[in-house]
User: Fold Hypoxanthine phosphoribosyltransferase from Candidatus Jettenia caeni.
Amino acid sequence: MEKDIARVIIREEQIRNKLHELSKTLIHDYQGKEWTIIAILNGSLVFLADLIRLIPFPIRLDTIDAATYGEYTFPKGETKVVHQFKIDIEDKHVLVIDDIIDTGSTLKRVLDDIKGYHPKTLKSCVLLNRLSRRRHHIHPEYCCFDIGDDFVVGYGLDYNNKYRNLPFIGVLKDECYRR
Ligand code: IMP
Ligand code: MG
Assistant:
């Protein structure tokens, strides 16, 4: 897998350090509250797993599925969101977690849907923020890294359902796309 990577843009150690910082902020903001995390699958899996293990108090957790890019590196129109919450989120402090905000349509769809369940507060948290393709005015309250135009893989992010298990974030070699 690593031979397919043209360059690493965020190293494991940088991710680890940033998650420590983020966890301190979240502990400060959510301690003593009924905190509910809703993670958008599959991309946020690795980020979620590492982040929640830095939190020393109970968290309520649920997940939702959103459509992936498949074999493309560009959004193909409308975001498909499949959700059926297994836990009650009404009147709870809800934090939505995703791997990356790109155009913003996934997060917008999810946040709009969750609003209908009347959470007490609703915020979002992403590992990566790509501003250059934003189509919706959405600004996650918690962002770890700003990135440029390049499509990235690793640490949960995939291309055609591969590379999610790389421990860093990198850019693929050109010949790896659409192969
Ligand atoms: P948005 O709806 O355009 O903001 O895209 C968000 C979703 O697209 C994310 O949850 C990712 O799953 C996927 N995505 C966007 N950019 C990338 C990328 O560079 N690599 C892998 N997945 C991406
Ligand atoms: Mg995703």
